[in-house]
Amino acid sequence: MSRIAYVNGQYLPHANAAVHVEDRGFQFADAVYEVCEIRDGCLVDPTLHFERLERSLRELRIAVPTSRAAMLVVMRRVARANRVHDGSLYIQVSRGRARRDHVFPTPAVRPTVVMTAKSVARAKGEALAEQGIRVITVPDNRWERVDIKSVSLLPNCLAKQAAKEAGAKEAWFVDADGFVTEGSSTNAWIVTRDGRLVTRPAEFGILRGITRTVLLDVADRLGLIVEERAFTPAEAKAAAEAFITAATTLVMPVVSVDGDAVGDGRPGPTALALRQAFHASTERVPL
Ligand code: PMP
Question: What is this structure's pTM?
């Protein structure tokens, strides 16, 4: 079955789906995106994704292309057209297409909207979570506005590739003061030896992950104490547990950092309990 993408009002087989060569997303990475989990035939936390998408657009002064209701219609249709029951939905909105020039086009052009969806077997994620993943650390060489979910992901791609080449699944960025900011596509957490959850505050230096936001609620529900503060790789190595979060990986235990085992080198009970409890705190909208 050929996959179907939405591009500016049309549903097209991927082979025929394209944006213009002078789209500003392509030319300048002048675009933002969202990745939403699809689980059991439902979109997970669409409202939080809409809120973050609109914030990213606002910060870059790109027009909001359509209402949330209209967006939801397209999201469902793309997911259904691709027969996705479990997987993810990708949304990209660029400033639009205009003759190449760094300054914003005047008058403003219509934003480009692209959506794709893909199936991902749940069992694969569960098998990985049982094993846990290794992470490496790399210097954070990104721009300051990583709170905006822009498609300008070159440092993230380089970091993820470095992780892969080191036999790891994720790279944690480390800031100039020696603190972990976040992963190349995930937020970073540790569990201290006295059972406190630690994750960096989302005001500066990281993307405010939707999974992170929801997990703070889950932690509260489970009666866990959370400290929103930065931690170092050394603290992570000495912690009881570590894990990462994202809409695609959910809560994924980390078993080593730069080759040093975290805890007993196996997925920790807190991470696994949070993974298990996560979806009870999510909004779910049937496709
Ligand atoms: N940080 C970065 C850099 C990311 O790319 C992502 C994934 N979009 C996250 C954190 C996690 O965000 P979310 O929980 O919304 O998937």
Answer: 0.98
